[in-house]
């Protein structure tokens, strides 16, 4: 089977770019998008970069009814020397394939997927904002688009990548949030889809978030779906606690999403010789630590905010104030280091950055493999 490259159709008109200080997350989109189709028997094909436009999809497309879809989220940054760089993008492509596996979506060629991201960002590189803390958010996703109402895996899919310039997450400096521990609803259970980045997980989380927002909390802390005892995630971020000098994050147990920021935080802490452990941690333990004064810091981690310190936890009638509601030392250090690397202010000693615009021609390989690995 022959190799494929990316067909490019340039947009004839260019949109006006929003000002850096008016960027709202996920509201503005660039001039181009990447699309690729999957048809059983043919594999992934028709890889193209085309003008940003609406998709034409049958109302019977399976994604609308049974939610067979996956997505990713990563960012491109304008470095100090003007280079456009991605943060650990290969990890996102690999995770996309793990999500695919769980949702019975055929895998993509990972090198080709990364190449698609790089080519698209290169094409719309003028959209990467340059103000402090801004970036270009990259949203790859796959939907099942076979028109069929039967409950079965689809035979047709569409892979799309869109780009959205985003403003600084922290306009007035990194700022701790109030979090309510969720005792009624659960995000995911072991054996479910919590490990996959799929829209359904988000749909089922909206209710709890809506309730706590009305009560003045910005997010919920999710507990395990069986005993509602062990901590899993915070909102759509991974979560860390610093207790008596040790940083603890819930071990990946099958219902927690494996965050790339989470992995980066762990690597940094190990590099700094800060004790860090991935293990089960109960809300009871966090409460005890708060009561005896050893709960030093708590923070969420994810691509959007990088680090989101937790200033207060509400649990069963108790308001637990953490670090006087201020950003902790480790939270700040991790935040400054990761963002420093992303914007090229700190040496990338972990080799996390991938530059965009280096001329490499990666063609889509092994179409056959992606077909046979389906069966
Ligand atoms: C995407 C996501 C995260 C964070 O992952 P990053 O790779 O760090 O952005 C954490 N939890 C959930 C549920 C997510 O969907």
Q: Would you kindly provide a written description of the structure presented here, covering whatever features stand out?
A:
The structure is a single chain. The chain has 375 residues and is an alpha+beta fold. It folds into two domains: 165 residues, 2-Layer Sandwich (D-amino Acid Aminotransferase, Chain A, domain 1), CATH 3.30.470.10; 166 residues, Alpha-Beta Barrel (D-amino Acid Aminotransferase, Chain A, domain 2). The strands form two sheets. Strands 1, 2, 3, 4, 5, 6, 7, 8 and 18 form a nine-stranded mixed beta sheet that branches. Strands 9, 10, 11, 12, 13, 14, 15, 16 and 17 form a nine-stranded mixed beta sheet that branches. β16 and β17 form a beta hairpin. The longest helix is centred in the middle third of the chain and has 16 residues. The chain is globular, with a radius of gyration of 21 Å. The protein starts with 6 loop residues before the first strand and ends with a helix. Pyridoxal-5'-phosphate binds next to α5 and β15. It comes from Oceanobacillus bengalensis. Its cofactor is pyridoxal 5'-phosphate. It is an enzyme of class 2 (transferase). InterPro entries: Aminotrans_IV, Aminotrans_IV_CS, Aminotransferase-like, B_amino_transII, BCAT-like_C, BCAT-like_N, BCAT_family.
Rg calculated over all Cα atoms: 21 Å
Question: CATH top level of the largest domain?
Answer: Alpha Beta
Number of helices: 8
Number of beta strands: 18
The CATH topology of the largest domain is what?
Answer: D-amino Acid Aminotransferase, Chain A, domain 2
Q: Provide the residue-averaged pLDDT.
A: 94
In the CATH hierarchy, the architecture of the largest domain is: Alpha-Beta Barrel
* Count of individual domains: 2
Bound molecules: pyridoxal-5'-phosphate
Estimate percent helicity. 10-25%
**Which superfamily, in CATH terms, is the homologous superfamily of the largest domain?**
D-amino Acid Aminotransferase, subunit A, domain 2
Shape: globular
Please describe the biggest sheet, giving its number of strands, its sense, and whether it closes into a barrel: 9 strands, mixed
Q: pLDDT under 50 segments (min length 5)?
A: 367-375
- What is the terminal-to-terminal distance? 18 Å
The computed structural class is: alpha+beta
Order of helices and strands: EEEHEEEHHEEEHEEEEHEHEEEHEH
Strand content: 25-35%
């Amino acid at each position: 089977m022959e190799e494929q490259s990316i067909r490019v159709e340039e947009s004839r008109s260019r949109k006006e770019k929003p000002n850096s200080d008016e960027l709202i997350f996920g509201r503005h989109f660039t001039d181009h998008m990447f699309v690729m189709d999957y048809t059983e028997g043919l594999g992934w094909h028709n890889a193209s970069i085309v003008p940003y436009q609406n998709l034409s999809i049958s109302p019977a497309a399976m994604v609308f009814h049974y939610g067979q879809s996956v997505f990713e989220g990563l960012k491109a940054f304008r470095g100090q020397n003007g280079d456009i760089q991605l943060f650990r993008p290969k990890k996102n492509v690999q995770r996309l394939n793990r999500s695919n596996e769980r949702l019975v979506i055929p895998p993509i060629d990972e090198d080709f997927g990364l190449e698609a991201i790089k080519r698209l960002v290169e094409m719309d590189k003028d959209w990467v904002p340059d103000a402090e803390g801004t970036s270009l958010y990259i949203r790859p996703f796959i939907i099942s688009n076979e028109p069929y109402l039967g409950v079965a895996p689809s035979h047709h899919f569409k892979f799309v990548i869109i780009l959205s310039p985003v403003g600084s997450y922290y306009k007035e400096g990194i700022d701790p949030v109030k979090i309510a521990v969720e005792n009624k609803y659960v995000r995911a259970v072991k054996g479910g889809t919590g490990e996959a980045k799929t829209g359904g997980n988000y749909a089922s989380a909206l209710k709890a978030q809506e309730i706590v927002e009305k009560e003045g909390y910005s997010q919920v802390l999710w507990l395990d779906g069986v005993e509602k005892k062990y901590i899993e995630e915070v909102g759509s971020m991974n979560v860390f606690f610093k207790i008596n000098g040790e940083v603890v994050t819930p071990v990946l147990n099958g219902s927690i999403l494996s965050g790339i920021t989470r992995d980066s935080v762990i690597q940094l802490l190990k590099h700094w010789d800060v004790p860090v452990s991935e293990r089960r941690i109960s809300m009871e333990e966090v409460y005890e630590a708060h009561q005896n004064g050893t709960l030093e810091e708590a923070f969420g981690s994810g691509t959007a905010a990088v680090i989101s310190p937790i200033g207060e936890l509400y649990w069963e009638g108790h308001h637990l104030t953490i670090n006087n509601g201020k950003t902790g030392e480790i939270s700040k250090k991790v935040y400054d280091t990761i963002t420093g690397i992303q914007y090229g202010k700190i040496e990338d000693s972990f080799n996390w950055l991938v530059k965009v615009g280096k001329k490499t021609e990666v063609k889509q390989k092994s179409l056959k493999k992606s077909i046979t690995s389906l069966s």
